[in-house]
Amino acid sequence: MYCIKCGKEIGANNSFCPECGAKQTPTYKEVFVRNGISEKDFIANINKWFQWHPKAANITCKFGMDTAIGLLANKYELNQFVIEYELFEHNNENQYGLVKEESIALMKKSSKEFMGEWKQSHPNVKVVDWEGGTHARGYTVSHLMGGFGARNRLNIYILFKFPRNKEN
After folding, report:
1. Measured over all CA atoms, what is the biggest interatomic distance in the chain, rounded to whole angstroms?
2. What is the pTM of this model?
3. How does pLDDT run across 94-129, given as a tens digit for each residue?
4. Pick from 8, 10, 157, 166: CA 20 to 30 A from residue 116's CA?
5. Please, are residues 95 and 50 in contact by the beta-carbon 8 Å criterion?
C-alpha cells in the first residue's frame, strides 16, 4: 500500500503514514449540477443524497454560484455544489443538510451577524460551511428609488450537520 498524500510505501494496516503523518482514509467527491431545475428542487436533491448516504462523513464543500436576472438587480443562485467526504464502515452519527437562507432588511446587517442569529435559533446543529455560499447585494437600485428595492439582500447557503436519529 502507498500513502495517499506522499506516495511512500507503507504497511497495509497503517492508519497514518509513518513518513508524512497523513491519515490514510480515502476521500470521495460528488458533484451536483443544477441543470435547469429550480434552485429549491436542486437543494432538495442534495439533501436526499445526504439522507441516502448515511456513511458519508467529514464532509467539506464548495459552492458554485451563477448570476441570474433579478427584478431590480442581478442575483446569485447556487448552480453547482461539490462535496468531498470519507466513508465510514458504520453509519455516521451526524446527518448533513443544506439550506438557503435569505434576509431582506432596510438596516444593513452583516453576514456574520446573520449567521450568529441563525446559529442561536438552531442550537442543535453545527455549521460546517457557509462563507463560500454567501452573496450580499445592496444599494444597487435602492438609493434611486428612495430607499426601496434591492437594499441589503443577503443570501446564504449553509451546509450543516446535526445528530442523526438513532432509529435510522
Report:
1. 70
2. 0.77
3. 999 999 998 776 556 678 888 999 999 999 999 999
4. 166
5. yes
